[in-house]
Amino acid sequence: xxxxxxxxxxxxxxxxxxxxxxxxxxxxxxxxxxxxxxxxxxxxxxxxxxxxxxxxxxxxxxxxxxxxxxxxxxxxxxxxxxxxxxxxxxxxxxxxxxxxxxxxxxxxxxxxxxxxxxxxxxxxxxxxxxxxxxxxxxxxxxxxxxxxxxxxxxxxxxxxxxxxxxxxxxxxxxxxxxxxxxxxxxxxxxxxxxxxxxxxxxxxxxxxxxxxxxxxxxxxxxxxxxxxxxxxxxxxxxxxxxxxxxxxxxxxxxxxxxxxxxxxxxxxxxxxxxxxxxxxxxxxxxxxxxxxxxxxxxxxxxxxxxxxxxxxxxxxxxxxxxxxxxxxxxxxxxxxxxxxxxxxxxxxxxxxxxxxxxxxxxxxxxxxxxxxxxxxxxxxxxxxxxxxxxxxxxxxxxxxxxxxxxxxxxxxxxxxxxxxxxxxxxxxxxxxxxxxxxxxxxxxxxxxxxxxxxxxxxxxxxxxxxxxxxxxxxxxxxxxxxxxxxxxxxxxxxxxxxxxxxxxxxxxxxxxxxxxxxxxxxxxxxxxxxxxxxxxxxxxxxxxxxxxxxxxxxxxxxxxxxxxxxxxxxxxxxxxxxxxxxxxxxxxxxxxxxxxxxxxxxxxxxxxxxxxxxxxxxxxxxxxxxxxxxxxxxxxxxxxxxxxxxxxxxxxxxxxxxxxxxxxxxxxxxxxxxxxxxxxxxxxxxxxxxxxxxxxxxxxxxxxxxxxxxxxxxxxxxxxxxxxxxxxxxxxxxxxxxxxxxxxxxxxxxxxxxxxxxxxxxxxxxxxxxxxxxxxxxxxxxxxxxxxxxxxxxxxxxxxxxxxxxxxxxxxxxxxxxxx
Length: 820
Known about the structure:
This protein has 820 residues and is of the alpha/beta class. Helix content is 50%, strand content 15%. Strand 10 and strand 11 (353-365) form a beta hairpin.
């Protein structure tokens, strides 16, 4: 007899299982978990209150509330259903509204208590329990689990269902799902542990999203996980909604409503809701689209048709066949691709019926409106409108990034070589060289949305967690951490960004291509980034972004030349002058040049104005020569000094191009020779270092050649400093001195602590300086006519351009120089 009753129980719930799977889409595992729980309750009734506690976990709008409602509708254990949106009970005062006041006559008169008194055999659904006030969570838990015999509320026959969207990205991770399959209890414990760590901000104070006592109760109950909905399931919901519209409209209007190619019609209408598609939206708003078209038609036409036909054109049908299954499996993929489907409608009247047709369908790119769609203080999914083609220069960097993108786009190749997908990349480079804009372009080229994080956001561990939560929800996607080497004040102490949360997020990234989150980070220097970030399987791809190359600099100058100018500006010449300048400096050039023209009532800018503004930004404003003592004498000395630097640099270091030689006194110098930074390399030979020392000494030696003892002044102090330093490095660190040999003296000093080889070091530095001085004297004498000629030009016009200098140096006939 017991066996027969047991079979009856199983038969009963198997029938209910079948009904539920027919009525709720894409949630077979959730239905199985629910029905299995009721079988357990039937075979092993609980002695504790309430009858059962369920927790439904999953993304928003996937059927959690619907399944709860169906449970009350089709299970004969229940006769009522009650839904509470816990977002309406977010402050402590709401406890009284829900539960009543225990200390007064109002106890038991709360909404929940009143309902349970009238309907003890019920299913009560608490949507988004994490939104409820924490004290209310405790009071609610106490009420539904209390066995107080004096209580007027009986929960012994009631089932309570809590729902939440917390950590929904985690339990869609394939690694977690595999853990659930292998050991369900351990997998659920992992999920609950993550939920227990979730926090919410109440008046800027962080507190647990779900109180520990409720977590404990949930762990002792039944946990049901919900899937994301596929588009096919959403289509089924849309189909049901349009079928109901057809029945209701025909009955109320006495006009027959006919759908042609119903499947294509529903799919196109659903795609037109992209990128934000939800079950509730489709079931409520999808029929409204057709109803609005019908209403508009009836307003425009005087006659009443016998029937209305809704159809799809061949073009729209072809569009659907090309795009529907090819690109989209889940509705969020439309968001990832930043696309909407735009429909064009055509309305016509044929004899006794009207025809409303989707005549055209096409894809369009959009950008979300963060201020409207997303809440403040929430991570924002963004889309880049500019790709690499919109960025001038940096060809090697772009080529490297395109190779990385090809890896991200072809995960099957990664799998073939049995390695994990790369998780992160660090772009290093000086400030203002375009790292941020390159990262945004990377997102465009990869075809993925990104979340941008910078500044104070990097120090907020809760915000970082939200960022990766959202990125996983819309995976594959990118998290862009701009400036992870930044430091900020935390409790009055200058500290780097916190490491633990970011490391946790990086380590939890799935290797599944459909759930993948790629982290892009930028920094000024790689060695300023916390070493725990830049290890294998975290951020382990490194790309150096150098200073702007010629192509990039030319782009900025051409933008400046869009302003009114005299048409005589030599772009190539100006491009040479701005080597070494970053984006902020180059933006300033255009602004300062324009302001100069406005202040001086000029109609346009010219080359002289442009170059002077460049020099001001690079070297400072010109000084008022009226306030410089012995200005005429000093200018002649400076001209001789700088001319000697320029001539010997041209002779000894011809591969390093000179931009200009000037004696215009500025904030930190009376004159200078500027070079094209593009020509400097990181590795110098012994000959190049020796030649540099000669160039440094040339100014002082030329002044003595012309002015005798009066040529010895403080103007050479910086030159002597640099020359001495180069000599020291050659002898002490680079092993370039014959007498000292291949010894690194600094290493001995740092590790042994004794001043070994001190005498030899001093002699070596003196020897290098003396040898360079002798060679410099010889070269100054050899090229004295050129030095004098350039010096005289400098006295007359303050500046000699690099091109003019090269022309002078190429003229070997002294008489020819004199004629000019």
